[in-house]
């Protein structure tokens, strides 16, 4: 797949077939994550690939299973109709989109600075870098014909996953990534329109 094709085919996928992903393919996809730029040159990230259903259940115990469209309708911060439709689709699927995926990939980044209380923007570099890595992974998965979704751990979700996964202190989970073969009827929610002529500026804003 050509690069720009992969970029436009990359969408959040929340419904999957039962197909498994061969380990060699998974290594290629995660290998692409390690080619991303990194602020301090280290790329000292770890990626845990979880395929075992019992492990997934234990790790995802904190993820809400019963959210409904009504919960989305009660979210007062959503005003845009396209955004709302996307949330109405995504929110009720937060658990299944991970549990039903062929694998949940868990990126780990080192807590080198207190990213929740950064002294300045550069203290977020370590966080920004792993997100570059996650985007590489997502694009590589797309180029291989797979789909991904993301969930940011809320509340005690990270603590529960840490206990299940047994990784040492000093690491943080930026997100859970569900990955698998998109179901034939997998929905790609509409993206918000962007207007390049209004959003790209030449020389000055
Ligand atoms: C930083 C970040 C956090 C996200 N968190 C979630 C999440 O918690 N749950 C979810 O279903 N999707 C999450 N997403 C996916 C977005 O909802 C999705 O990318 C967006 O709606 C655009 O759709 P697309 O990926 O199909 O282009 C997140 C994406 C990003 C970049």
Instruction: Assign the CATH topology.
Output: NADH Oxidase
- Average residue-wise pLDDT: 96
Hetero compounds: flavin mononucleotide
Indicate the CATH architecture: 3-Layer(aba) Sandwich
Can you count the beta strands? Answer: 5
Outline the structure in words:
37% of the residues lie in helices and 12% in strands. With 205 residues, the protein is α+β, with helices and mostly antiparallel strands. It has one domain: 3-Layer(aba) Sandwich (NADH Oxidase), CATH 3.40.109.10. Strands 1, 2, 3, 4 and 5 form a five-stranded antiparallel beta sheet that branches. Helix 1 crosses helix 7 and helix 2 (23-33) packs antiparallel against helix 7. The two termini are 35 Å apart. The site of flavin mononucleotide has 11 residues, from helix 5 and strand 3.
Give the structure's gist in a few sentences.
The protein is of the alpha+beta class and 205 residues long. It has helices spanning 3-9, 23-33, 53-59, 69-73, 81-90, 96-99, 125-143, 157-165, 196-199, and strands spanning 46-50, 103-110, 147-151, 171-172, 176-180.
Give a topology summary.
Layout: H1 3-9, H2 23-33, E1 46-50, H3 53-59, H4 69-73, H5 81-90, H6 96-99, E2 103-110, H7 125-143, E3 147-151, H8 157-165, E4 171-172, E5 176-180, H9 196-199
Antiparallel strand pairs: 1-2, 2-4, 2-5, 3-5
Helix pairs in contact: 1-7, 2-7
